[in-house]
Amino acid sequence: MAGNTPFEQLVGPLTFYLATYGTAEPAVESTPGASWVELGCTEGDQTYDESGELTKFYDNCHIGPVKTVLGQQDPMITMTLVGLTLENIARTIRTVGAVTAPTATTKRLGLKRTAAQTEYALLAKGAAASPYGNLPGQFFFPRGVFDGKLAKTFGKTTRTAVAVTFHALEDDLQAELDRLGWLTVQTS
Fold first, then answer.
1. Does residue 1 fall inside a structural domain?
2. 131, 38 in Cβ contact below 8 A?
3. CA nearest 7: which of 133, 184, 185?
């Protein structure tokens, strides 16, 4: 089996990085630069999903559909964060500007959410994204927002985590097929 290519899809987690909307995609084989912030550890599975269904059209002359259109598409990536600094929580459910430092030894996150969500660029990076073996791969979403809520559970045997979903938004500055993001993988 070692001589068969492409290799089976690898397993393993992706690492998530955030930057301000408008930040360019870093090279797939490079560690993201200073403009990218790593979101910290995640727990469990991470899921990429493209919700949206085809609308089928039928006519009286055929039994099956004769045409289809994709009316909506909502690419999203879901993760459960356990690297829960106040800054990481704020980035994913509010805005990092919501974290203040009332004193030199304290930080504070206001619990009121705003109606408008902060737009980010998201990079989901790891060898699990590449179907060509243990090689770099990354999902890049040039524009999107987080959907999540601050639902933390505390207990003797419970790890505190926050489940969030990043929804891609169309970026009109990109080529037509790239407006909702893209997957880049190294092949050798």
1. no
2. no
3. 133
